[in-house]
């Protein structure tokens, strides 16, 4: 029997209420209610096209950049509505960083990959120290410390992805979003990223979208399972089926859809 984690409002980093996302007139995701606790890793799992990444992009308003995309309902970040008129989306993205599926280092030196973003965001402290600290937190310092002036593009895929994590850390966010950060990596690099995530949750809240259920079960504290259903217009709409402690989702889920998915019957 697992201990049921019941966070208080002060422990909640992000909360969605009746979240719905439209692309044009098409409803893409419906009725998502979630509470993301601070300093935990939350995994989003589910079949392709069920809305996992769409929901993730709502959290730092990346969907604002997609023409015709509309978000309804409410998302609060430490109690503040992130879609309120007074919220600056650029400032929000400094507090809610993102690591993408494909590593995307800047075509600059390893050092400048970290320093550039910090500089743009007004960092006035010791840059050498910030670069080293960020790279250490992303578990890549020992591999790059002697080649900081070399291009970030010269690194291996796994090192590039950890460089991108370091870059996200350097602007001192509260939350780090990860959209399938290991999907293009080999198993050894994947394990390094997973170990990095476990260490990072001491200082950050992490939300990861993954198709790898073993990864979700290894790294996350809580798991949200999404599914999709066909619409009468020939498309499909994603929805949240179940959200609970990870061990519950994988060992004793409430919903039959969840049971079928985690046991490999579909997806």
Properties at a glance:
globular, ten-stranded mixed β-sheet, 267 residues, Rossmann fold, alpha/beta, disordered N terminus
Please give a structural write-up.
The protein has a domain at 9-104 and 175-262: P-loop containing nucleotide triphosphate hydrolases (Rossmann fold, 3-Layer(aba) Sandwich). Mean pLDDT is 92; it is low at 1-7. The protein has helices spanning 52-58, 89-95, 110-120, 127-137, 141-144, 157-170, 187-200, 213-219, 246-251, 256-262; strands at residues 12-23, 26-37, 41-45, 69-77, 80-81, 96-99, 175-179, 205-209, 222-230, 236-245. 42% of the residues are buried. It is built from ten helices and ten strands.
**Global Rg:** 19 Å
SSE class? alpha/beta
- Please give the alpha-carbon distance between the first and last residues: 28 Å
Number of helices: 10
- Which percent range fits the helix content? 25-40%
- Give the spatial strand order of the biggest sheet: 5-4-1-2-10-9-3-8-7-6
Describe the largest sheet: 10 strands, mixed
User: CATH H level of the domain at 9-104 and 175-262: which superfamily?
Assistant: P-loop containing nucleotide triphosphate hydrolases
Average pLDDT for all residues: 92
Coarse shape: globular
In CATH, the topology of the domain at 9-104 and 175-262 is named: Rossmann fold
Could you give the order of the helices and strands?
Answer: EEEHEEHEHHHHEHEHEEHH
A few lines on this structure:
By secondary structure, the chain is of the alpha/beta class. It has ten helices and ten strands.
């Amino acid at each position: 029997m697992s201990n049921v984690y019941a966070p208080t409002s002060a422990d909640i980093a992000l909360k969605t209420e009746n979240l719905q996302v439209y692309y044009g007139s098409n409803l893409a995701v419906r009725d998502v209610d979630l509470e993301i606790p601070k300093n935990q890793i939350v995994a989003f799992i589910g079949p392709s096209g069920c809305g996992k990444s769409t929901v993730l992009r709502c959290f730092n308003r990346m969907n604002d950049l997609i023409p015709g995309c509309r978000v309804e309902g409410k998302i609060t970040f430490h109690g503040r509505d992130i879609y309120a008129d007074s919220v600056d989306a650029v400032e929000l993205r400094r507090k809610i960083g993102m690591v993408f599926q494909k590593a995307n280092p800047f075509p600059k030196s390893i050092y400048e990959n970290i320093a550039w973003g910090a500089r743009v965001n007004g960092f006035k402290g010791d840059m050498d120290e910030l670069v080293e600290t960020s790279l250490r937190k992303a578990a890549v310092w020992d591999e790059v410390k002697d080649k900081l002036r070399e291009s970030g593009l010269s690194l291996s895929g796994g090192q590039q992805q950890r460089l991108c994590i370091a870059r996200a850390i350097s602007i001192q966010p509260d939350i780090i979003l990860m959209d399938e950060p290991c999907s293009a990596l080999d198993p050894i690099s994947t394990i390094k990223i997973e170990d990095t995530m476990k260490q990072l949750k001491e200082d950050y809240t992490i939300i990861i979208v993954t198709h790898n259920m073993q990864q979700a079960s290894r790294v996350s504290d809580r798991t949200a399972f999404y599914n999709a259903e066909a619409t009468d217009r020939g498309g499909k709409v994603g929805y949240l089926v179940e959200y609970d402690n990870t061990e519950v989702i994988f060992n004793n889920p409430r919903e039959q859809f969840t049971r079928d998915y985690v046991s490999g019957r579909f997806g």
